[in-house]
């Protein structure tokens, strides 16, 4: 038995020592950091643009869909063919694409610095969980970014292979050139990173004992095709493309500012560069170790995230220690090379961001701007630690601490995306329950984005996917945010235009939702809810909200489960939305049935105004005592509800009834209306 165990142990050690084992370890670290998203995968932020594109089923349109990024459309079309529009598949594929890109970076570094294998492995793993990039779960929108990086990294390693293995130069170099140019037209994020290629070529040639003169000439010749490709891209991007449109979201605003005001622009550049470099090299890493991330007592996810982080980091350290035992000792000190490559990669990766007038260290979703400079930032960080500390043990344990904290942060952050998707699903299904059919051309007006992980520019795609019977390039529905809507639009017959959608405030409905409290139900604005204190922020929309745009039509069209998930369990909000719809249709018996069913399940609301459909159903069916009692309960639930209740009981005076009606109308006036008088 002992011999059998010893044999298996030796076999396991031999596996760990194999070069192909590092890619497996790297992938397992990525799964530890981001795997929690697979329990509830969804769509976020700009994902919805590509989701909408998929359901247009128009390959020709895909080529022009991503402005300034023509080959991103080809990338999406390729992924559509086998990923379809399944959230789980997109999460998995985007993770694999990013893993492959980082793996090629590792192979490139290992080719030019073969005696620094353990440092190269740390570069790879810290790139994968880089704490400055927190949008890995935005899988659909960032798949083109990851694909472009994969092509760029693959192009780099092929360049090195072409130089080291001259017999296959004719194969590797043309393929490297093709991939390098393709990624330029896919995504501008890594365009200037092309500047690190001549450095890598030079290091590779010098490692083969090429003299400086020959190495310099060959570096220029090998890099020349890439420079020509970059020049063609630059002419197309900076000269031709702006002539084809009135608006360029990634316009080189900084260049324009330098021309118009050079002194002010240079001051701005200095502040931005100083702030962003400090953010990338120091603040991001220090931030993972702040005391706020150690909330073990009250946060279950904090305990889980740190458990995963520490266990994964320690296991990775043990792997590094074992795999580096066989490394040959070396006296070379390529710190200068590492400093040059890391610095150029950092600056070159950030230039596209700075040229567009943006900052890496500020703004929501600005973490995407770390995708370009993170390679340089991690190289500099790893090799600076390697140079600064004396013993390998000191270096390794610092990396272990940073890896553990980075994984913990990514787990915590990814869980926030996972929970956000649950909130999104709840909101979308509530809309579907409340709006079985919506007249084409209707605009929905609300307050802000649906959830924290969505954006204003993508809400229109969601609304159209929810209510359109067939998606088209000219949307039938759209969403408008009051914070982006001029106050002059709070009146009838004002145009509502957004891209291909052309609507009017005369065909619009207002909606209320509470991003900070997803347990509150979605509310379609109807005059009966006027003076609800919860709706003060959006009260200006009441005059133009027309619930008659909602119809029961030709039956209920449920949301596509492939996009929005299966119908969730029927909590209180299901009964409220269905009751509110039935109130609009004056179906009082259905409301009473819904109320009885909800009560039987022990469901209720913490918001008094959500009982209004049930109050009216009681009144309309002559059950005045129940209507009054439920009104009193609603009053107790929500402070400041008297004006709302008073308005509705005054409206109930139009309901036919006998002496009991008059008694409770008088009670209601005494209870709810006297406190509203001024």
Write the layout of secondary structure elements.
Elements: H1 2-16, H2 21-34, H3 47-56, H4 59-65, H5 70-83, H6 87-112, H7 117-128, H8 139-164, H9 169-186, H10 197-207, H11 212-240, H12 253-260, H13 262-287, H14 300-323, H15 335-355, H16 374-388, H17 392-434, E1 437-438, E2 443-446, H18 459-467, E3 478-481, E4 495-498, E5 501-504, E6 508-512, E7 523-524, E8 550-551, H19 561-564, H20 572-584, H21 588-600, H22 612-620, H23 624-637, H24 642-652, H25 659-673
Question: What's this model, at a glance?
Answer:
Helix content is 60%, strand content 4%. The chain has 678 residues and is mainly α. The radius of gyration is 30 Å and the shape is elongated.
Question: Would you write up a description of this structure?
Answer:
With 678 residues, the chain is mostly helical. The protein has 3 domains: 405 residues, no CATH class; 115 residues, no CATH class; 109 residues, no CATH class. It is 60% helix and 4% strand. The protein is built from 25 helices and 8 strands. A 4-stranded mixed sheet has the order 3-2-6-7, covered by helices on one side. β4 and β5 form a beta hairpin. The chain is elongated and about 110 Å long. It starts with a helix and ends in a 5-residue tail after the last helix. The model has no long low-confidence stretch (mean pLDDT 86).
């Amino acid at each position: 038995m002992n011999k059998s165990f010893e044999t298996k142990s030796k076999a396991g050690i031999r596996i760990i020592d194999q070069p192909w084992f590092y890619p497996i370890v790297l992938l397992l670290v990525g799964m530890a950091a981001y795997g929690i998203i697979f329990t509830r995968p969804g769509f976020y932020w700009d994902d919805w643009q590509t989701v909408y594109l998929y359901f247009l089923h128009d390959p020709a349109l895909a080529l022009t869909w991503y402005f300034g990024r023509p080959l991103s459309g080809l990338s999406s079309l390729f992924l559509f063919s086998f990923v379809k529009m399944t959230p789980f598949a997109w999460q998995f594929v985007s993770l694999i694409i990013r893993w492959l890109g980082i793996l090629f970076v590792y192979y490139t570094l290992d080719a030019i610095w073969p005696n620094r294998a353990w440092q190269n492995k740390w570069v790879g793993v810290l790139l994968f969980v880089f704490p400055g990039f927190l949008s890995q779960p935005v899988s659909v929108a960032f798949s083109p970014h990851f694909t472009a990086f994969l092509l760029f990294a693959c192009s780099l390693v092929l360049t090195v292979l072409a130089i080291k293995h001259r017999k296959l130069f004719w194969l590797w170099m043309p393929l490297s050139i093709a991939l390098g140019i393709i990624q330029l037209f896919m995504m501008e994020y890594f365009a200037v990173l092309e500047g690190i290629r001549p450095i890598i070529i030079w290091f590779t040639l010098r490692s083969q004992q090429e003299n400086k003169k020959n190495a310099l000439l060959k570096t220029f010749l090998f890099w020349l095709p890439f420079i020509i490709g970059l020049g063609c891209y630059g002419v197309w991007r900076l000269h031709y493309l702006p002539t084809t449109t009135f608006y360029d979201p990634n316009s080189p605003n900084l260049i324009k500012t330098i021309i118009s005001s050079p002194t002010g622009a240079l001051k701005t550049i200095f502040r931005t560069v100083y702030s962003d470099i400090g953010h990338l090299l120091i603040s991001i890493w220090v931030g993972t170790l702040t005391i706020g991330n150690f909330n073990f007592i009250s946060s279950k996810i904090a305990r889980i995230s740190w458990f995963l982080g520490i266990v994964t980091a320690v296991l990775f350290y043990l792997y590094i220690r074992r795999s580096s035992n066989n490394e040959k000792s070396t006296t070379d000190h390529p710190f200068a090379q590492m400093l040059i490559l890391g610095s150029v990669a950092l600056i070159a990766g950030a230039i596209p961001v700075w040229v567009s007038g943006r900052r890496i260290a500020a703004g929501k979703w600005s973490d995407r701007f770390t995708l370009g400079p993170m390679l340089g930032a991690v190289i500099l960080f790893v090799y600076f630690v390697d140079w600064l500390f004396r013993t390998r043990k000191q270096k390794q344990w610092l990396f272990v601490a940073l890896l553990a904290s980075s994984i913990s942060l990514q787990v915590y952050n990814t869980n926030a995306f996972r929970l956000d998707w649950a909130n999104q699903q709840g909101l979308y299904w509530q809309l579907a329950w409340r709006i079985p059919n919506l007249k084409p051309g209707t605009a929905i007006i609300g307050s802000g984005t649906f959830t924290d992980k969505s954006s204003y520019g993508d809400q229109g795609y969601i609304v159209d996917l929810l209510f359109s019977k067939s998606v088209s390039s000219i949307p039938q529905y759209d969403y408008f945010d009051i914070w982006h809507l001029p106050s002059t639009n709070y009146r009838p017959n004002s145009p509502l235009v957004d891209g291909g959608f052309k609507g009017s405030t005369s065909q619009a409905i207002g909606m209320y939702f509470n991003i900070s409290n997803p347990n509150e139900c979605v509310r379609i604005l109807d005059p009966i809810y006027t003076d609800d204190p919860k709706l003060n922020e959006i009260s200006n929309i009441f005059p133009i909200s027309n619930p008659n745009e909602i119809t029961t039509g030709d039956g209920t069209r449920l949301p596509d489960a492939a996009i929005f998930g299966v119908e969730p369990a029927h909590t209180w909000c299901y009964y409220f939305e269905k009751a509110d719809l039935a109130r609009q249709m004056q179906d009082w018996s259905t409301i009473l049935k819904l109320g009885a069913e909800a009560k039987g399940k022990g469901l209720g609301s913490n918001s008094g105004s959500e009982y209004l459909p049930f109050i009216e159903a009681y009144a309309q069916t002559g059950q005045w005592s129940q209507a009054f009692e439920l009104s009193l309960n609603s009053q107790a639930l929500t402070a400041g509800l008297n004006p709302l209740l008073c308005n509705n009981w005054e409206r109930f005076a139009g309901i036919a009834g006998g002496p009991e009606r008059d008694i409770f109308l008088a009670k209601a006036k005494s209870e709810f209306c006297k406190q509203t008088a001024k």
